[in-house]
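ARCHIVE CARD
Drawer: 12
Card no.: 0347
Subject: one protein chain, sequence and derived structure
Cross-reference: see card 0346
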Amino acid sequence: MGIRVLIIDCLTAGRGKREFTRDFIGSGPRYVSGFIEMISNEMVQCNLIRSDYIFQENSHDLEKYPIIGFSAMTMDIPVVKKLLTKWKKVHPQSEYRLSFLGGPITCDEHILRQISVDFAIIGQAELALHSIFSQNIENLTKSLINTQQNNQNATSIKKSWKIDLLTEIPGITYFNPKNQQIILNSMKSKEIGKEILQWFKNGTGFPEKIINYPDYAFSRIYIECLRGCSNFRRTSLKLFNGNQCKDSSCQICRGSSFSTLLNCPAGIPPGCGFCSTINQFGWVVSRNIKKIIEEVNYLIKIGAKRIVLGGPDILDFYRDRIVEEPLINPNHPEPNYRALETLINGLLENPKIKNHEVQIFYENVKASLCTERALSILSKIPSPIFSIGCETGSSNFADLLGRPSDPKKIVSAVKQALAKGIRVHVYFIHSLPGDTPEFARETLSLIKDFMILNIDKITLYKYQELPGSPFWKISKKISPPTKEIQSIYRQIKRLVINFNKSKKLQIIGEEFRVYLTEINQQYPSDAMGWILEGGPKVSVINGSKYIGSFQNVRIIKVLSDRLVLAEILK
């Protein structure tokens, strides 16, 4: 009998239920689940489940799983704690259980002081998982399974086996009860290059694990095309530890023709100040084109309808293959056009993509790489759409933040994309560290410019400190927003809400193909659904009897800036 492991996808679940991104499935949890089974030579049976379903299905038997793993973000701390407590109740003896944590949440080096799992995997997980579930699989089986099957010998188990094991695992933090300290096991760069990169580059993505998500047929399924980010430019704002760019004339990260370095002379972490991607994944590494196409085709074959080609920037794809050193410049070289074209043409060989029975989304692009040729390649996909981060409308503030592109460049890229027939979704962040009334007014003005361009959607986020980002803990060093700037933020919020609502008004009377997914809780005879091409959530009158199918509908009313009402076409 092998070991049973349960991986729980807690991403965006917050306190227990996903309120946002309910139609999105990330790649990390299924990758980890499949990877563990693969490296253990099937000595481990790994089940995957969303946190929502555990609370919905009281019959879910946690007793089967002596090992449990959580994939989560910082916002998901409450649900992880709740589930961990639930699991520990059915596994009360600590020497007969093992728990771990992964995902963006582990960028906080002190997360184990908040969540009492046995260990947390830092950044990329492959080496740690391989060490535990391949190199140490026999010891793990002996410690967790044999003693449970032979209770009379259970007392003979060496209670320190977990500490003995975790001491040897690379790339994790664990709590040592002997000295009450959190210990960090480092990874050597040679090991990372030798092992992780090959597993990731040539991996399948384990698409077969998608069946663990009952809603996969209508969800936007994330395909990890690349890891890491090429923006090794740095913020010039003063950080929590006091580090700050010491030379205003430094051209390493400043100026329109900046160059970059792996290591900053002033000790400033790379990347936009508010982002933790580089801390978690480092520079760009791309997956094998053939493996990506195979993964997409597999998902489509079993019924997936909405696929997201994911990564911090899809235009970084295979740029790492045309430079000798690590890819750390977001501007040079230009996109790898040959690789992009090979990927897109390969996807278009699938008739369901070519005939637009399946929608392909591009998750992110950097304006610095939005050349006319690159956009022409992306526009080959039917009804193409991408998201692009702008964050601020101020050129000066963008420079302070370490952004890869001036906001003016982003406007230009969006205009080019619209001219190619690509729909565009633009992101902004308010309440960022270092913001001023002047910068905020420039953001307000730029949003108005995007409104005139009639882009698909504007999303406005409130800044949240992310562990592992350069700005982590910076709020302790800066003053709260003044009344003046808060007033401008309120204007920005109203403007964005009104614009998004106006976009919904534009589609009244239009017809769409909508996949119906769940009952409208307020009106049980109606159903909630998603538009194939992307867009607002749709409440469909008398649609409950058609849940689980596509229906042709007509939009008849706007209910909010995020929701429209529709009727089924006869």
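Annotation on reverse: The longest strand covers residues 511-519. The chain has three domains: 3-197, 217-504, 511-568.
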